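> Could you send the Suppressor of cancer cell invasion prediction when you get a chance?

Sure thing. Input:
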Amino acid sequence: MSSGGAEDDIPQGERKTVTDFCYLLDKSKQLFNGLRDLPQYGQKQWQSYFGRTFDVYTKLWKFQQQHRQVLDNRYGLKRWQIGEIASKIGQLYYHYYLRTSETSYLNEAFSFYSAIRQRSYYSQVNKEDRPELVVKKLRYYARFIVVCLLLNKMDVVKDLVKELSDEIEDYTHRFNTEDQVEWNLVLQEVAAFVEADPVMVLNDDNTIVITSNRLAETGAPLLEQGMIVGQLTLADALIIGNCNNQVKFSELTVDMFRMLQALEREPMNLASQMNKPGMQESTEKPARRENPHKYLLYKPTFSQLYSFLAAAFKELPANSVLLIYLSATGVFPSGRSDSEGTIKECSLILGCRYSLKI
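Output:
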């Protein structure tokens, strides 16, 4: 808002609109930053705080839609600021997915991230001499790529990687910053990840089909003779990647990526299910389908692993199973050589020999 006498000329209603927007914006940032302080393990402590944060962002998003002209004229709202709000909502949906294992939240995150790209919210960032704004744009691309990988949208991933490469090249050319090597490493990691996974199959007409490791509604395996449905339920899983050298992107190794999808159902499209555009109504929650809860740990310390394991056991319901997947580089005992059969990699799965209801 302008100062001095010009501010006195602003109608009271428009001044209140700007004040309310600033309050919601500051409140949303405060709550979002507080997410870092929440415990990473435990399935109950985070819910109320996440709900409050999501409610504020929902109000903020709707408010800027309803009062866009006033905010443009009186507040000087820029498109990258709208993109930043949408990006934060996309991050909230993604973290809902991580906390609940409900794959439908991935579609909601994709909806917001895709809208940012389609509406070019970050297009003017490169014209401003502010490297921190360009970094926001680069981080948005990295997060969008992760969501697309989890949704197996490989065509979109390839387009995003090309765009991110161009953005990084422009960023490193314009600004002599210390994080150039880090961003080039991000590019190398995602390129290696795309090359390593997923498996691609050719149709009869030679078109590429991206295969999915997730459980389809009609793809549940048949029960073996004598097994009883619901006797045990797979309720929780620890998926741990601890190899020294392994293809990864954003602390998600290829084997962790495949394993987490094997414990999930295919995501539903909430927008089409509810007949509402995802960018219009962000408060709707999907029907709970009880995917097993998962903790994804990349190179944890022993104390971290112990804490997550203890929390998972503590909250494990009755008649339920906890699955542990560990992929790690073996240790060579002193006095033995490779030829004596030392295990270099191990994968450990603990469970029970019953029909597990996912």
